[in-house]
Design brief:
The complex is a heterodimer.
Chain A (H helix, E strand, L loop, with lengths): L2 H4 L14 E3 L4 E4 L5 E5 L2 H5 L4 H7 L16 H18 L5 H17 L14 H9 L13 H5 L3 H15 L3 H7 L5 H4 L12 H14 L6 H9 L21 H6 L7 H14 L16 H11 L6 H12 L4 H4 L13 H17 L5 H15 L9 H25 L12 H25 L76 H14 L3 H16 L1 H4 L12
Antiparallel strand pairs in A: 1-2, 2-3
Chain B lengths: L1 H21 L13 H6 L9 H18 L3 H11 L8 H21 L5 H14 L4 H14 L3 H12 L8 H32 L6 H23 L5 H13 L3 H13 L7 H13 L4 H14 L5 H11 L3 H15 L8 H17 L2 H11 L3 H4 L3 H10 L1 H15 L4 H10 L4 H14 L1 H4 L1
Helix pairs in contact in B: 3-4, 4-5, 5-6, 6-7, 7-8, 7-9, 8-9, 9-10, 9-11, 10-11, 11-12, 12-13, 13-14, 14-15, 15-16, 16-17, 17-21, 20-21, 20-22, 21-22, 21-23
Chain lengths: 582, 450
């Protein structure tokens, strides 16, 4: 009744934060949901015509306010294209080659559209509405070509005409029946998207956007590893979480679109790697550019980075190089990714590099909670004797420094994790019915936050740290942080021979049971507690540095040990080992 | 993974709770669940949890930790990131989250050094609109918080608003809270009544006009109606009952007050509550009821709480009576009192006991003492009459010790440790008295008789 008069008054009620005003008989505003009367009175003319109130309400109808603002029509794949574009821009800003955006990722995306029969095809998928969009694109190019004149950006930005035209076309095709569906979803095909029958191939999803990025990075042999990529994503250097909020104003997100674009967690390393492989196979990609010794992804180079980050002496690198050679994991054929080959294998480059360091540390210091301490005591003695010159690396000292640093950082990381904000400012709702509820909730949360922020005081506005692929930084200059980079390992070099042999017989193999690496998960939870403390710490350290699961690193170490000692060959006569669970 | 196992086990335990009820028809089915040992060694995949949920969970556990350590500042900061849980995709989570936020937020605001009562009020307002299901509870809690801060009027307003609140159908739980709200509101009415009443009395009787009386009566009516409704429900209503009885009593509603108290004490639907009997006793005593009735009330209290301090009164009441039965009972009451450590060193009780024992012996009813002693003879010697105790008692109070020694002597004979110790200690000082005592014991102690 009163909505006519109260419509202009959009302040939320201070008691219940709802905008649901009505006017009482005295002409005062009151909240319909909690009956809170406020100071505001109805406007003067209203009061004058109070006696005619009935006529007033009869004469005017309400404008349709509930109608959703539909925005322009768009397809889900366009949404993903937009997100990919943003992600590529962010990656370029992080220092990758500009080719990534305009050439590599663009081509991979086109190829995906073609393979999934969404565009660049003569046989478009069986949805009438799509035809117009597709026919628009077909004219550009019909296959994956590197010298295509339609660049990545032209698809989204610099060629607004083309996009406009396609939209117009679709509008003609869609006609009136679209009214009903588009309220349920903002995009044209959002409600149909999840039906698997609709897509024969790989269904585009948010994690898959990261797989696209990784694929492009790998193709270009960029220095951003998958672990780095995921870390940048969680630090929000690369848009992923709530990426849809950067959509242009006209692209509205409703209903099923939310399920497609909203992100509830950051995918794991393995998930993205698996998705990447699926995608590469789906796209039938050729053998990737070779990873040689000069590439960042080669274990030799990755190890240098990790050694620096872990504050280990540089001289360890000699050992690592020898190990890499012995295990054969530095070879081009091993490292280069070839999705379609029969024995396609995905190398976890950075995890493997960390595992090499772990193996090297085990070779040098045994890490059985006994020998490393004895050795570091001996090193201390040696250092005492010749106080000048290069010091011998002391494991004990390194351990204390790193332990403190790791504990600090882990605490900080957990702190950050607890404060991570997942939800975006933009209210999302699945149907019109929810709209008012969602808006109210948003307002409520906002006001609650305001209250508590005021109470907490305005301190610590976190400045965004500069993105870096280093988590720890050990400057030689600083005093309180000991740096071990220059320390020597001479004292541990028992064997003078060039051939690597186990430093002593006490080397122990991490996995308790030797088994088929393909079938066995190697690590069961209960095994963890049998690990020596220092080995456990080193695993913790590196898994924290890489941001991967602890067990994954352990698995990698086990696999390297299999290679190093060629265990399967050595133990063959004893027969097969079955999958075991302890 | 460990959490997974714990959950599984918890689930299993839950299942077994409901199990037997259903299978009670004929022969109950054997219920076997997976042994724990197997569960432990299974490689249970941790349930897939979204990053959002994980964040919120760590946030909550950190808030709890901060609260436990009274780090209100940290808790407040963390709270700002916890509010996002209200946007969880499932409504069930949202509902439970609003309750958690209400409880934690209120606690933080109440303890945070920089927060004022306004903050708590505005927070409560917001929570009422978010968690409609907890509306009444929030109102009640907020009203109590206001009361604690001396804001009577605001609390009253809050309560009366909550009383008139209607939203959909009331569940049983809501009804319960509503009764509480009503009760508290009436209690505040009573409070006003008491204040006005005492003011009125200070002014003196001469100035009382009919208008004032009417006003007082209105308060009385409001309070009594609410209190009556609240008190009718089974539960522990001590302050409410007292106020209600006071009110009724003031307006000469003796019979009504008595029924209320009787109902409170004897209605089997109410949980057993010793205070109910205490109130009833005090009320009856105030109105000079016959000793017989008083004894009846106290006898029940004696069964509920044998160590209650009213037992001394019970004892004296019993002694006043001429009946033999009552005197025997009085002896039992004293013995029971001394069973409890609170009365262990009570001088008065020991004095009463020896006095009565002597009297009983003089009347030739020493079998009564024997009867009481029988169940206690295996633990009282160590409890009351050890050598150590004798030394201690003697140090503290000689006459008390000698009285106690006499009891010990009568009960256990002159050879008992306690008596011997006291005898030796006090021999020099009061030789004659002790000798007399020893003679008495020789003649009358229980072991000699049997």
């Amino acid at each position: 009744m009163d909505e006519e008069d109260t419509r202009d008054f959009r302040e939320p009620c201070e008691r219940c934060s709802v905008i649901n005003w009505a006017i009482s008989d005295e002409g005062k505003f009151f909240c319909k949901s909690c009956h809170n009367v406020i100071e505001k009175t109805a406007d003067a003319p209203c009061e004058i015509f109070m006696q005619n109130a009935r006529v007033n309400t009869l004469s005017k109808g309400l404008k349709k306010r509930n109608k959703l603002d539909q925005g322009c029509e768009w397809y889900v794949c366009e949404g993903f294209q937009y997100i990919l574009n943003q992600q590529a821009k962010a990656l370029v800003a992080l220092g990758t080659s500009p080719l990534l955006k305009d050439e590599t990722l663009c081509n991979i995306w086109r190829r995906y559209l073609q393979k999934s029969q969404q565009a660049y095809t003569n046989k478009p998928i069986d949805v009438p509405r799509r035809q117009s969009l597709v026919s628009e694109m077909v004219s550009d190019s019909s296959e994956l070509v590197s010298d295509s004149d339609v660049s990545w950006s032209s698809l989204t930005e610099s060629n607004p005409e083309g996009q406009d035209r396609s939209i117009q076309l679709t509008k003609d095709a869609v006609g009136s029946e679209d009214e009903a569906t588009s309220i349920r979803s903002g995009s044209v095909d959002g409600s149909l998207y999840r039906r698997t029958a609709y897509r024969k191939g790989l269904l585009m999803s948010m994690p898959l956007t990261l797989a696209f990025c990784y694929l492009a990075l790998l193709w270009l042999r960029e220095s951003i590893t998958l672990a780095d990529l995921l870390r940048f994503v969680s630090e929000q250097q690369i848009p992923y979480l709530n990426a849809f909020q950067y959509f242009p104003e006209e692209m509205k997100l409703y209903g099923p679109d939310i399920h497609i674009f909203q992100v509830q967690s950051i995918p794991s390393y393995e998930e993205i790697q698996g998705k990447m492989h699926q995608l590469a196979v789906f796209l039938e990609m050729p053998r990737f550019p070779e990873i040689t010794e000069k590439c960042f992804l080669h274990p030799d180079i990755l190890c240098v980075k990790l050694l620096m980050e872990a504050n280990l002496p540089e001289s360890m690198h000699i050992w690592i190089q020898r190990l890499v050679k012995k295990m054969g994991i530095g070879e081009v054929d091993f490292l280069t990714y070839h999705p379609l080959s029969r024995r396609a294998k995905m190398v976890k480059y950075e995890v493997q590099a960390a595992a090499v360091i772990v193996v090297a540390l085990k070779l040098l210091f045994v890490l059985n909670d006994k020998h490393e301490w004895l050795l570091s005591n001996r090193a201390k003695e040696i250092n005492k004797q010749n106080s000048e010159g290069i010091k011998v690396f002391q494991f004990k000292k390194w351990y204390t420094v790193m332990r403190n640093r790791l504990d600090e950082c882990e605490k900080e990381a957990e702190d950050q994790a607890a404060r991570h904000l997942w939800k975006c400012e933009k209210p999302l709702f699945f149907s019109i019915k929810d709209k008012s509820v969602i808006y109210k909730k948003k307002r409520m949360i906002h006001s609650l936050k305001k209250q508590f922020v005021r109470l907490a005081g305005s301190h610590q506005i976190m400045e965004k740290e500069k993105p870096s692929s280093f988590k720890f930084n050990w400057n030689e200059g600083s005093l309180e942080r000991l740096c071990f980079r220059e320390d020597s390992l001479k004292a541990y070099d028992y064997e003078k021979s060039k051939r690597i042999r186990t430093v002593n017989d006490r080397y122990w193999v991490s996995c308790l049971k030797i088994c088929q690496e393909k079938y066995c998960g190697h690590l069961t939870k209960s095994e963890e507690k049998y690990f020596p403390g220092s080995y456990l710490f080193i695993l913790q350290l590196f898994s924290f540095l890489l941001g991967v699961e602890f067990s994954m690193l352990h698995l990698e170490v086990c696999q390297l040990e299999h290679r190093l000692f060629n265990l399967r060959e050595e133990l063959k006569p004893r027969g097969k080992c079955k999958k075991t669970k302890s | 993974m460990d959490d997974g196992i714990a959950e599984l086990i918890a689930e299993r335990d839950n299942l077994t709770d409901d199990g037997p009820v259903q299978a009670s028809s004929s022969r109950p089915e054997i219920c076997l669940h997976l042994p724990r040992s197997i569960l432990q060694f299974q490689n249970i995949k941790a349930a897939k949890q979204t990053g959002f949920r994980r964040t919120v969970q760590t946030c909550l556990s950190r808030i709890k930790k901060a609260m436990l350590h009274h780090q209100w500042q940290t808790a407040t900061e963390l709270m700002t990131s916890y509010f996002q849980i209200l946007e969880d995709n499932t409504t069930r989570k949202q509902a439970s989250a609003s309750k958690v936020i209400w409880m934690i937020g209120t606690a933080i605001l109440q303890y945070h050094p920089n927060s004022c009562i306004e903050d708590v009020s505005s927070f409560a307002r917001k929570m009422k609109s978010i968690g409609v299901k907890h509306y009444l509870k929030i109102c009640l809690e907020h009203a109590i918080h206001l009361l604690c801060n001396g804001k009577m009027e605001e609390a009253y307003r809050e309560l009366s608003l909550a009383e008139t609140w209607r939203y959909g159908e009331n569940s049983a739980a809501q009804q319960k809270v509503l009764k509480l709200i009503q009760g508290y509101r009436s209690l505040l009415d009573y409070y006003t009544w008491v204040k006005k009443n005492s003011a009125l009395h200070e002014q003196g009787d001469a100035e009382i006009n009919s208008g004032r009386v009417q006003e007082m009566h209105n308060y009385f009516r409001q309070a009594s109606i609410g209190l009556r409704d609240a008190v009718e429900n089974p539960g522990v209503w001590d302050p409410f009952i007292l106020s209600y009885v006071n009110l009724l009593d003031f307006y000469d509603g003796f019979e009504e007050a008595l029924t209320v108290l009787n109902n409170y004490a004897y209605n089997s639907r109410f949980p057993p509550n010793p205070n109910a009997h205490v109130y009833l006793y005090e009320f009856l005593k105030k109105h000079n009821t016959s000793a017989k009735k008083l004894i009846k009330v106290l006898r029940i209290l004696h069964q509920l709480v044998p160590s209650h301090e009213l037992m001394l009164e019970f004892h004296s009441l019993l002694l006043q009576s001429k009946k033999k039965k009552h005197r025997k009972e009085a002896l039992g009451v004293l013995f029971c009192l001394l069973d409890f450590s609170t009365w262990k060193e009570n001088y008065h009780v020991w004095k009463c006991l020896i006095k009565q024992m002597k009297k009983v012996i003089a009347e030739g009813h020493s079998d009564w003492i024997h009867e009481q002693w029988e169940s206690r003879q295996d633990w009282w010697p160590a409890y009351h009459f050890s050598k150590y105790r004798a030394h201690k008692d003697f140090e503290q109070n000689e006459s008390y010790a000698s009285r106690k020694a006499m009891v010990a002597g009568i009960l256990m004979g002159k050879g008992c440790k306690y008596f011997v110790t006291i005898y030796q200690l006090g021999y020099k000082l009061q030789e004659a008295k002790l000798k007399k005592m020893r003679q008495y014991i020789k003649n009358h102690s229980l072991p000699n008789k049997s």
